[in-house]
């Protein structure tokens, strides 16, 4: 398989066993995988390379997954899809994670097959968006080509900022 066109997944989890199991399963299913034990390793890797999706554990020592997700969304990785993992079934973590910018959520323990299916679904959804789509100010203004959609006021604007619809 061509490594340049293989989806590259970054797994960030402080649990070595989970990193190894998930990494092995995803590799067997044709994905390229890199692992990081914490936010420092994640940041170091992302400075040098790019990934197609990040699987990010919520509960980690140091910066937890929620902080890392918020930081990723505020920086140059704002469009990289993020799938959060949590050992807590409390809906608060899921809600906060989604509010911080996660694209999907999975509760531990999970079936590896479900994780793979969710990874593929998130990648499929993000690739359906036009390449020139830009989301600004937490989704209030979508820019595509010469057009803008104000999602707050529900107006379509042309290149001059004139309301079209």
Describe the structure.
This protein is α/β, with parallel strands linked by helices and 165 residues long. It folds into 2 domains: 8-128, Rossmann fold (3-Layer(aba) Sandwich); 130-165, no CATH class. Helices cover 36% and strands 23% of the residues. It is built from 5 helices and 9 strands. It has a 5-stranded parallel beta sheet with strand order 2-1-3-4-5, sandwiched between helices. A 4-stranded antiparallel beta sheet has the order 6-7-8-9, with no helix packed on it. It is elongated.
What's the helical proportion of residues?
A: 25-40%
Strand residues, percent: 15-25%
Unreliable runs: none
CATH classification, class level of the largest domain: Alpha Beta
**Major β-sheet strand ordering:** 2-1-3-4-5
Rg estimate, integer Å? 17 Å
> How many domains make up the 3D coordinates?
2
Number of helices: 5
Structural class: alpha/beta
Q: On the 0-100 scale, what is the average pLDDT?
A: 85
Order of helices and strands: EHEHEHEHEHEEEE
At the fold tier of CATH, the topology name of the largest domain is Rossmann fold
CATH architecture of the largest domain: 3-Layer(aba) Sandwich
Sketch the major β-sheet.
5 strands, parallel
Secondary structure blueprint with pairings:
Elements: E1 8-12, H1 16-28, E2 32-36, H2 39-48, E3 53-57, H3 65-74, E4 82-86, H4 91-100, E5 104-107, H5 112-127, E6 134-136, E7 141-144, E8 147-150, E9 155-157
Parallel strand pairs: 1-2, 1-3, 3-4, 4-5
Antiparallel strand pairs: 6-7, 7-8, 8-9
